[in-house]
Structures are given as C-alpha cells and as structure tokens.
Amino acid sequence: MTDIEEKVIMTPKCKTANSTTLVVERKAVEPEASDKIHVAGGDHTGIIINKEKVYENGVTEPCHAQLEFYVYLVSGTTGTHTREARALRFWFKPQMPPSERPYEAQAFFRELVSPQDFPKDYVGFIKKIMKLMQHKYYQLKLLEVELRQEGCGPPPPAYIEDSIVNQTPVISEQRVLDMIENAYPNALTVEDFVSAGKWSKAEVKDALEALEEKGLTRTMSEGLYIRQHSIDTQVVKQMPTLCSSRQPSIAVITALYCEKQAVDAMMDNQETYVRYTTVGESNVYTLGTIGAHRVVTTKLPSVGRTREAMTAAGNTTTRLLGIFQKVEYVFLVGVGGGVPHYTDYAKHVRLGDVVVSTPAPDLPDKYVYVFCEKAEKNSKGGWDYEVKPYKPANFLLQEIAIRLANTKAHWDSYVEEGNLNNIIYRLVDYIIIISIRHNC
C-alpha cells in the first residue's frame, strides 16, 4: 500500500463581525476538488483550501506556543488606519521534544514577519504561512491563525515614518511633567524646556503654572522648577549623621520617579532628604523600613543609554555607598521595558513580576548580565561585538530566587492586603525588579 503524501490544508474555523479564525494543518489525505474544496496545482501543488466548511480542530490540549503581534491596515480609498491583532497558535507533532517547540515557533514567526518580504494583504499572509509549513517546518502539525480588528486610528509614533516622528511634539502639561520627573532630583529652568522641547517660553510658563496650581511642581530659587513631593521632605546641604541603628543595609535605586514612588509606598517611618545644587547633580534619599530591614531609596537624575547617563548611574551608586557605608545589597529597580517572552505568551513579564538575572545553564562563563556596547560588521559578513559582562562574587540572590520559584509563596494574600491599603496596588502598577547586585 502506497503512503499518502501529507498535504497542507487551510480551513475557516469561525468568523465574527470583527475577527476571523483559520486553521492550517498538515494531513495525509487525497480530497477531490469540488465547489467547496480547491486543490492547488503547479507551484502550489500540495496545498488545499476548504472554502466554506466551518471547522473545529479537535485538539483538546493547550497550544504548544502562542505569538501575537499588531499590524495597521490602511484603506486604499480613504487612507484611514485600522489596528489588527494577529495571533498564531502552534501545535507540533508528538516526536518534537517540548524543549524545542518554542524555538521552532520563534523561527517560523521570524521568517513570517521578515520586513524584507512581509505580506501586504490577507491572501499573501495566509499563503506565506501555508508555503512555510509545506516546504520547511515539517514538525508543525497545526497552526491556528486569528485575525482580530481592534479599532481605528493612526499607529503610534514608533510605527510612523521618520518625517512624522521628527516633528516637534505639541506641548502639554504631561510632557512638561514627564521632563521634570525624569530630571528629578535635578531642577530645570524654563530655558531647559525650550531647548529640549522646542517650545516657546510662553507655552512652557503656562504649563508650569498649571502644574504648580495642581500641586505637582514647585518653584525653587533662581527660576528652577522641581517635582513637588506628596510627603514631607527636608532640604539639606549635606546628609545628617545617622546612628548605627538607623543606618540602612539595603539600597534601592530607581530610574523613574514613579518607580521611586512605588518603592517608597512600601516603606514605613519614612524620612526624605533632598540636597539641591545648581552645579552638578542633586540627590534625594528616602530612609525607612520594609519589614525588618532598614532601607534607603534614591533616583537616578537622568534616564537613557548614553555614556553620560551610564556615568551618572555609576556616580549615583558610588555617592550613595559613600554616605551609607553599612549598605550590603544594592537593588536596581525599574520596568526594564516590560520585554515579553519571544515565543511563549504564558511566560511574558507582567507588572509586579520579580525578574532576577541568572547564568545560562549551557555556558561555562557564569555571567548574569552581558551588555553590548557596540556591534560592527566584519569583512567576513558577520558581526563583531564589544560587550561588557558581569557576574557577582557569589550567587546568593540567584539561589534565593530559585528557592522562591520552587516554594509556594503566599503572594496572593499579600497582594489582597496591599490592595486594601492602596499600597501594593501602586507597586504592581509601576514596578518590575530587573536586576540585583551584591556589593562586595
């Protein structure tokens, strides 16, 4: 008996007013062409289209991988934009090891959405999926494709051509407040806003007056503007001397103002000290307790990946450790961009997650962090990378993270308690711990 060759079959699954779901699967069948079944020939031999049949794929187990992305559809007649979510759900053949499934889904996805030949319409998109399954990804048993329209409106600036992105943004109170919070604890002048935002002095002054009326900013001497704290702060020329029992053993450094607010919301017995200077960098330190620990928090006065921003981060840490000499652990806290897991939607980083860098198990060098400073194309067509790796003197924090991951912690009860007190809510809303460093 001759084995029947596998075919790639596309079948509609369901359709609503704003969504369409299709199933593309691999089957060993020999269907006959009809008014409802199209059997392709020529270059597309091996592809079958079920035109009208409503299909249930019969798969009861959860998909092995799921990826979702957005496209913006442009009407050829009106020029209007429609945002569409496209979800891909993968099921692989049993012989493919579970550990390899996410990587196969990633490879398929990267080839499908390659910018060089990304399909411009529905037909091209589905056709490319079927051709990839037919000629390359032989272990992919079934792929469910959901196309879901989610509203109208132009795409965000990241998706718009450079000519539009480079236009001067319209001034708003929120943009001015963002600049003040990013610079905090450094103060800004009207000229700083004019230079950075390309706005007029009159526009800046109107926005600053409105923010001050709302209690969000305040004017310092010499025309300087700074964020107004909701808690009492003490302006000092230098930090007061602290007795041994009040010295912090843990330091938390944040990049954004809202992140520092979230950490401070977890602290009891707070004292905030601000040292302002018109030359160099100002400093802010909030002291208090979290549980049984004495903690100090501070905020970087600048944000970014430039050499100047990284130097500022290093200076802030060095200055903090010089003032609070009993600090044993330094936590760098931030949202980290909220980068999702590339192949497994169930492993996306969520707000409130704690992420600890750990060494890759298959690499001999136990680095927990590798930063690429520069990448240059070489004569062989590849790339040369200039990187800075980091590994701690010991892996205590990584061991603690592993123990936490293997232990059922009562997080839910803490979150519920925090929500009632309006504390944890602020933390979850703003903060992800992305890197932890032990100071040796």
Automatic annotation (TrEMBL):
It comes from the Eukaryota. Residues 171-227 form the Winged helix-turn-helix domain. InterPro entries: HTH_69. Pfam families: HTH_69 (PF22979). PANTHER family: AGAP000321-PA, PNP_UDP_1 DOMAIN-CONTAINING PROTEIN. This is Winged helix-turn-helix domain-containing protein. It comes from Manduca sexta. The lineage of its organism: Eukaryota, Metazoa, Ecdysozoa, Arthropoda, Hexapoda.
